[in-house]
Batch of 4 targets.
Target 1
Amino acid sequence: MITLALVIALLAVTVVCVAIGERVHLPYPILMLIASSAMASIPGLPHLVIDSHLILPLLLPPLLFATAQQTSWTVFRYRWRTLLFLAVGMTAVTAALVAGAVWMMVPGIALPLAIMVGAMVAPPDPIAVEAVAGPAKMPRRLVSMLQTEGLFNDAVAIVLFTAALHALSRGERIGWGLIPEFLIGAAIAVLVGLLLGFLYRLGTRVVTTTAARTAMSVVVPFAAYMLAEEVHASGVIAVVVTALETKRRARVEDSEARISRATFWDVANLLVTGIAFGLMGMQLRDVVVAEGWAVLDYLPLAATVCVLVIAVRAIGMVLIRPVAHIDSGDLLGWKDSLVLTWCGMRGLATLALALAIPVVDETGAAIENRNLMIIVAASVLVVTLVPTGLGLGTLLRALRLQDDGTVTALEIAELTARARGAALRAIEERFGGTGELTEKQMTALRDRFRSLRKELDTTTMAQEVIAADGSGVAGTSGGASAATDRHQRELARAKFMRRGREVMVAAQTVGLDAARAEVLDARSEKGVDPHAADAVLRQLDLQMLAAPPATGHAGGHGVGRH
């Protein structure tokens, strides 16, 4: 019960830190680090302890899965050179240089321990970037590049960390054989991700309940990670591939499930990140208490590591400029390189690996210098997050790179125009020449799809259109009484309006289906920002849910919402 109470307390503190962070323009993870350290200082409060072997499987899969769904296979194909250089090359070089510095500066430290420190602090984090990119108005092209890099560098860091941990525990040596081992593991992880993506799509066709589909999206990243790790492959790559594959195979008719999943993952990301930083804050407090003033002896090493990770990042961004393309096809400019250097924030991967350091190795012997490793990791987190979070907006303004929303608005407008064209073509093909829609109704539909981002009010619009056509309803025979004649006219008018509403709803359903299919196809095209496509798709999904269900109508052509 105490453990449950601590978890709930961390969740509550996360919400408070998010609110405070929005007001003071500071990344909420850092506030969580401070707040949880303060919580751990409360006398008599037990500490939340999680088995180090569970840290990575618990924290990484959900956050990587949610982040990977914001990009696409096309983005990776277009940026494969940048991806290899940043996610693989720079991560490995950073880890090696930091390991060398730690090995030289800490007398008697085992080389595997030094490599573990290097692996912990090497990978920048896409989730940390998102925490500050929005308020600072960073251009989407740079955010997307940082996200792409951040999805795979964790895999390299974890492989290095795990290999070093095994070498420390089992007396194994780390050699060049790690490279083919990583490549084989990556290939197997891709197969695992494709398999889980296929099973996920199969499950969504069998399971029709929205809640159950959302639950499947929670299960699949954990399943991908654990299955990949079980066959000695990269769980990170498996999760990323699974996310990309499920997004690539998205179906038009899954509007409600898409909205439900997006809402759930927004909340889950916030809470999981908060718990992760909260756990780190508690660990940091324990280390400070255990070491006392001896912590100051670790600061020169921590400062050296911080300088190294920033310097390697800066040099790497200069070297990659001749081959790194942004979405427009242009090479990176020096301003872009400076911002990408500034945003080399360490976050969840560093945090998770630091928390995953076991207290004892497989032989039962205590791991020496564990506190040193945690202090270094926490120092890198603070140095790369706090100045960036506070100064990114200022830097972007000074470089005149702040995004005023124009680019995204133009992309959304272009995608909306494509969706509108697809919708009108589908309506013309289905209803043109059939006589089921009057000219006034067709005009109303055209006007409706000129403003796809407004809330849909099908019933009201249909009633207005039918009311305009209602004058054409034929009267009854002159021999009937006035009351009977009026009653028959009202019945005929009601039937005519009901019939018109059904046709209009069916026509709009056909149009919205075609519009969503067009946006889903566009999402995989080169040069299309998945973020903009998702924004348009979400609006279309909301409009589809706002519309009343289509029913069958004359001619035997019922159009439903699947």
Target 2
Amino acid sequence: MSKSVYVSKAAAVAIVAVAALALVAVIGMVIFQHTRIHQCPSPLPPTAPPTELITPEPMPNLRLPETLIPESYEIYLQVHLHTEVNNSDNQDLRFTGNSTVKLKCLNATNTIYIHSKALNLTVLGVTDENGKGVPVSRVRMWEDKTEFAEIELANTLRVGGIYYLSNEFQGECNGSNGMFFRSYKEKKDKFTTAFVAASQLESTEARKVFPCFDEPAMKAVFNITIIHRRGSIALSNMPQKDNVEMEIDGEEWVVTEFFPTVKMSTYLLAFTVSSFESKETNHGRIKLRTWSRPEVMAAGHMDYAHSITGKLLDIFEEYCGVKYPLSKLDQIGIPEFPIFGMENWGLIIYSEKYLMYEAGISSTSEKYWTAILIAHELAHQWFGNLVTMRWWNDLWLNEGFATYMSYLAMDRMEPDKDMKDLFIVWETQMAMRVEYEGLFSGLTEDYPSTRNEIRTMYNIFTYSKGGAVLRMLAETLTESVFEKGVQSYLKAYQYNSAETQDLWSHLQRAVDNSSVHIPVAEVMDTWMQQAGYPLITINTTSGEVSQEHFFLPEIPSQYNYTWQIPIKVMKSGSEEIKFDLITVKGPVSKSVYQCNENEWILANVNYTGYYRVNYNPENWEKLLQQLETDHQKIPTLSRAQLIDDAFKLAGIKYVNITLALRTTKYLLNDTEFIPWETAMIHLHHLILMFDRSEVYGPMKAYLSKLVGPLYDHFESFTNKSSIPDRHTAQLNQVNAVTVACANILPKCQKMATNLFDLWRKDPTTNPIHPNLRPMVYCSAIGAGGEVEWDFAWKMLKMSSSDVERERLVEALACTKQVWILNRYLEYTLDPDKIKPELFSSTIRSIANNVVGQYLTWNFVISQWSNITQMLSGTYSAEELISGVTLRFSTKYDLQQLKTFDELHSGRGVFVESLKRTQTNINWMEENKQTVLEWFQREVSHGNNKV
């Protein structure tokens, strides 16, 4: 236990009288000659009994009892980490400190339960508001899922009383949560190893740093003081209040005190200790600072992130109707931070590489992903920080809102970039694909209690599906009504916690004051509590409409759900969009779904709903004809929806695969990104299934013809290695080059080879636009040999950019030379050649090359013991096997995978890969001949038609 334990001044005075803690008091008095007095009238009682470690029967309830609530914390943390050391053996990874938590008693009790995990904890004592000690009878640490410290008192606490619990603790900076550290190389006179300490307390990791009431609804005010090494800088949620240097135990330290926080949850508390540098801007009343390693800051890689933060804050303030409540906002990029970003109030922590934008190296897509990430974390300052979900089962209130709002804010910041529409392909479709495969999830159906159960709530459904159903609701209510309801909700529950029903209540008030008529809770509860999503089937001849649960046929549904489904419908020859609400399974007849023989009907207009639509064959035929004759009569997002729905309906045999393939034919005349991207996702799956079979020849010919006009549309830009203005056009230029070069369109191959050769002749100047580099690198290396590969390898080793290194790692896997691929696989086992964090992506890239598929599989089998050692906690064995076996679609493949699973896990660990392989086998048996004949027919129609 460190001697440098810090308590409030009032507490320190009391300790002087306690002989057992005399040394602690002396040190405390030295420090607090230089710090301000904190409000805590409670002197400490004599030392509590030593802590017992017990393994009791499981608690009947893993939640904290509703007997005490925290009002404020006084926390003193001494971070012993050196931010720079010559010898890593001299590094000190400890943190020590103490805390006093002010409690209010709600129900009489003689036991205090508080969370503590992986801490060397000493309970100093309990006092009442008058400073009188409450004797502690026993302290026990529960070694079970509760992660409780149980403090048994000799007296019962009275209802309404205020009490103070004081503790000492010690822990270590390790892992990727709680308090942890990261090292990096820093160039001064020479390269040295530098360190940064940071916190990551979401969801239940605050208890690993200090004993606390670690539940989201247990909000309190936090008074934080950080004691850190001289030469380092400490940051926390609030602005710095005081900062003094002093000598402690013969070493130079800095004591940094911060202003009290607003009332907030434990998981949002944050602190960092580093020698980073910052870029600072005064944005009205808010000081904005962006922090990073000095090298990154000097290169200007944080300039873009810093430049958009104030604009996004203004947008959120206007939308939410509530001002950002703090006077500062720090954003900091940490090397190898375990997640993309963490929304701590006033101190947002990011993974460095996702916060960076490297002009001339990063693509515009990577630039806007950085913007979306920043917008996501800024949205949390209101959705999650200001108003927090009461318990983790409502996590979607945080993450779903942040996902939806990030696109909305980006669209308002740059309305000409079509960011709002990109939500469809990057969120809605992605979530629907996962649920289609049988991983069903409602948004509030689970009630997690343990750490692991809570962790599972952070999934694609909470984020993407949560955002998608909010988008559906906003489009149903109209955005203006939705915005008014959201503002009312935020104002009502600010600095507090809420549940899903609270949101519905405030949205209903906004609805009742508008011309919209919809029972919000009644409709939305069917989407919150039910797993999966529905399929709507419409017969346009009879006007009948019905719904059913949509899922793969080999995954039996255990559910009998009925959704309330808001549907937007349009008919050919009219731009009017009609609204209907389906509340029964049906079939029921409604005139809105009936049309004459010359009309077609389109449902789920603009892909606003989180469901799929099937039609009678006659209506499908009319829609296909409309696409081929004048596709612009159908809205862009709806064109994407028709493609997406058709392929998924073919997957469950509700329509023929040829109907799905026909939805792609009209793309000859479409240059919009979202329909093309949707089609490419599905066609890529067909490539994986068929690129080792006789189907691939006519399929490649079809794709080459299909992409020709799109490539021509962007060719003037591509040949000059430049890009169009619109963001979605830039994205579709990438699609055009990707598909054209992959299918050996001569002009694309020539363009890629020429640009790559220009770079080889002058390696100091890369003439290839960052947007086009992945495709150009891959195409040139695939068409070339050892010379091209060795040049790219040399550039990989020389590059200082993570972005560029990752591109080159993937491109090097494109070679068709078997011996080079085998050599590359061997390189992955040498950390001096391939960095461990790039190991898995390199393996998957080689497996993605049809030439490297079985080479990779054989390599994985033979090197499994080495590979399992290479895998980090951020990438599992199951994920690696899933990436390597994407093409598995034969009985031989399945047997290989089963044998491997039995040999190396024996527990069916690779169950998802096994299920997918069996699904692929079934699909191939049913569709291969049909697909072959369809592609053969289409490519035999001449050079100008598909």
Target 3
Amino acid sequence: MARRWSIARQLFALQVLVVTLLVAIGTTGAVLLARQDARNAAIAEVTAVAQTIAHSPAVAGALRGPDPSATLQPYAEAIRRATDIDFVVVMAPDRTRYSHPSPELIGLPFAGTVADALAGGMVVEEYRGSLGDSWRTVVPVRAPGDGTIIGLVSVGITTDTINRGLIAQLPLVGAATGVALLLAAGGSWLLSRRLRRQTHGLGPAEMTRMYEYYDAVLHAVREGLVVVDRDGRVTLINDEGRRLLGATGDGPPGLPPEVSGLISEQRPMVDEPVLVGDRVLVANRRETRFDGRVLGTVLTLRDHTELRALTGELDSVRGLTEALRAQAHEAANRLHTVLTMVELGRTDDAIRLATEELALAQQLTDQVVGAVDEPALAALLLGKSAQAGERGVELTVDTESRLTGSPVAGRDLLTVVGNLIDNALEAVGGSPAPRRVGVLVREENGEVLVRVTDNGPGLRPDEAAAAFRRGWSTKGDGHGIGLSLVRQVAERYGGSYVIETAPGGGAVLTVRLPVPA
């Protein structure tokens, strides 16, 4: 099956056809106008010659002489040859010819219209006479003195003579037409060549099919797709991309600062976390090239909000499970110790040891439950305490902690407290013992204060300034997101977040969340 013509080839053929038709129509119009101009020029010429002859005293004198033809025939022929016209006929008012290019016709009646000339006017007409079709003018000859009409003068040019003049101009017209066609064809070829490069030689059916597939894929794919040109303008965004970025309307949206920052960094990205609104997205970025030219940037986005939440919950459950396993192991050791002491008859010592262990375990629970009414936050603190104990970290809840009810959304409070504690546990993980983390959560002056301290290595000033930025991590892997979530919650409430150096070393992270009215 023969390959269908591409759009460029079809456009080239159509342009050549249209240009050829236009040039043909223009040439025909030019020829017709030239013919009309030649005819008007011929009429003006024969009219001027006829009027000149009619006003000649020699002609008037000859018409009153005994043999007008003897004088008028040579006179008329001399003028005809001098002016390069086809005939000059001088006649009597009764149409009798006194001169003619064909001498045998002298004395015969003139064939043509003379009524208007006999009335003192002028006749201009196209007429088929003895010499064929011609344009002629007939004017009266008046006698000197009384002005009576004593004869008529007819001067004419045949149509063949006019056409020969036009035919002589045809080579020039043909050359101009040919040059116009060549220029038009060359321009069409250059345009079609450019179009062929831009359409890659595809035909209309292929481009239609490609667009249909392209449109279907864009609407069906479950990843956000953002295409940006070399000037940083959004040229395309699919449905999922609009949903993830919170864009509305049909036009290209402005990108959030977080996404704009990813594009402006001019580096390939693979699974880069980014916070957009209340969503945790994973971004991949790469430049698009064709024939060595950079066309723009393609950014793909995947929604990991729910996955991050589930991962966080799973990590918390895993940590709590490990802490419970360690506590169960420790409890088993203490239980064996108590039983052994009972078997040895040291019952009082066994009771005292069991009572001390029970009081110690209950102390933190009573403190947390008594200070915090929010059950989810209390459970989080108890779980983090057990997790800290498993890591060899002493986690204490400040006795000044007080939180009644739910002054802010529970989920947001858990995000702030949980991520701050996780960050502190991570900070003291590589420090020598004793490793301590303190937590203070209380409501004061219309805001919720969350402060987490640790005795880890602390942060340098430049690290403290960048700690809440997307992707920052002490590990340097670019995947830190916990403190970014804290910053996002604080900014959403219009609160503040700050990192300071503790007096004895370590870091103090303070977040203030204004209580909504």
Target 4
Amino acid sequence: MHNPPPPDASFVPGSAEPGTETNVGRLAATIERLRREVLRAQMAAEGRALIEVAKGVLIERLRLSVSGAAQQLATLAEQAGLTQLELAADIINQAAQDRISEAARAFLAYTQSEELSREAADVAVRLRRAESGALQATDAQAVVESLLEHALTPLGATAVAAWEAGPDGSLTLVGYAGFGAEEARRWRYVPPGVETPARRALVKRESVWIKDLSALGLPSIGGRDTPGGRVAVPAGTGGRIFAVLEVGWPHSLPVQPPQVRKQIEALAELCAYTLEAPDRPASDHDLQTLPELVDLADGLPDAALVLCPYLDEDGRLGDFRIQHANAAFADPAGRPRTMVAGALMLEAYPLAAEEGGLWEKIERVHATGEPYRAEKMTLTALVDQVPLSSDAAVSITRHRDAVLLIWRLRDESTQLANLLQHAQRLGRIGGFEQNTATGRILWNNQLYALYGLTDGEQPIPLERLAEHCHPDDAAAIGRFLHTVLHHRRSASTAFRLQRSDGIARHIRVVAEPVLDEGGRPLAIRGAYQDISSQHWTEVALAATRDQLAHSEQQSAERNRLALQLQQAIMPPKREPMETFDLQIAVRYRPAEQEHLVGGDWYDAVVLPSKQIMLSVGDVAGHGIEGATGMVVLRNALRGLAATGAGPAQLLAWLNLVTHHLTDQVTATAILGLYDPETRILRWARAGHLPPILIRQGEAVELDLINGIMLGAVSEADYEERQIQLATDDILLMYTDGLIERRDRTLQHSQAQLLRTAIYPTTSLEHRLDNLLTHNHSDTDDDTCLVGIQLN
């Protein structure tokens, strides 16, 4: 006789007898049923919305009543063999003539069978449902969720993000689906200039299709979780891009047919339409809507034009209307501003349409919001059908939907004066002219700055120069003045200027008299040059010479200590090691020059788990810093290996040590764990060259698996591989000092190493010695080499 189950047995999963349901199972079934009902209700509501829109089209086109339109829709659907929803989507496509209908027509043209035609109808319904959901959405988050659910998931996409383009070229994440909340917080804002798929699409102003995001190495939202295919599509209206739609696939994305591309472009335009700000000014700007920009242009000292986009019949950017020209406007063709104000840009300046010319820069700034500035740009205008070119400094910025164009024309005299001004500023030279008859003195701005005076103060006559110099320099100043004023010859001297603000400067002055035809002096012209930096450089150079011998001695001592530390940890040659069925040989060759002693290391040790750890690494840098970094990482790896973790985990931990517990150290490394029982070697790499396997007289490199160098980032994942070793197999690990050359690529040197590695030898040690002897490196870097051979 069976005992009855306990009263609460129905609450324990798996405790119910066959054929019965638990309360948890009933609850799960109820939740799933309600979820399906909600989904069906949403789809039905969206379907009813499309059918109602189609009825409205029939009412407007056929002048039917509401009931008549409903009956007509049902009749047409029955005759066409379609559902009312499919027919409604087709009617809307025919009436709308938008990007969604264009995508549907492209897919229909691609179809060749009844099955594909049915798929084309499904595409039209999906796109219109996505449109309905987006238009009913209350925020950008709901928009992207609707796009992913209705239109992108059938294409295999699993994630989507909507970016809003800022006026400075930045990107702000305004909606996402398929990405985690933490990932979205990390990518909520992308500053200008950061290269991402969305940024690339914004700058290029075209769709960017990426087959494999992980292979390209371009950062983006969800790069780790969704590393497969990506597409970024810019969208906007009137030539202005203010949104980018980015779609992600979990797998590599093959080349997509044109009809799929059109679908995604239509969704991007729909996303941009729903995200468009309601207060954005209309494209046919009236002057009254731009008072602030007009006031700004009128307050500028340079020529400025306020440009507004001029759209064609299809709503695309065709040109820019010159809405306003400021009072300082200077036309390259000499026309007054009244002749260009109100005209189209390409009508007033047709040669601006040249490739890479002014109009292209204006269009780019208007589309992306990224400002453009150039110190020198050639502007070409037509004067009686003759092109006239002028150089100008140009600035182009976008203000909401308008563009502000500023230029400053530069004629030859202006360019020469500007060049001279820059030369005087860079050389810290101040010029002067003193009229001997009237006593009038003319200084340039740089000379006022040298004396520490303002432009309104009285210049200092040459005769009173001694009053402003150091007393010890008075004699030299006297000889200088006597030569210039009495002998009427050019002269120069150096002195220490004592300024009124207490600052002393070392100055060189040169002057020459200007004489008339009779030899009488008319004026004295000359220049002052601040040579303080040169003087203090000479003083510092003298002090440096005194310290150089001491510094060289200290450097030699540091190099000696680094070399001793390197040799103490890793002697150039260690006795061969044989454990279990494995022979191990190591070699270390230090750099020939002591100051190039680096951070290369090797290690071969039997762990408590009876596995054999083999490692080779290279710390960036030379000298004592490289040697101490090598000691830290080598010892840390030994301690971490005692945990029994695998090579990938050990490198991940060693990366944390390198990033957080060392002072700006980076390194490459390769790590292997050999199990004598299975004869399997598991290995991982961190930015290092892969091992070489020699088997049956042939040498090959193992696959280059993923793994970033140590210390580059705080957290990193490393790939792990394994290889089954056979008797007489030889495995070599080495650092780049073995093969690196200045005149050849790394691939060429690696190929040469493979040829050298198969040279027949009598033992493993002889093979390592042969590799060191016949290597072709010329960088004088230290080298580590570890070899194992299975008996």
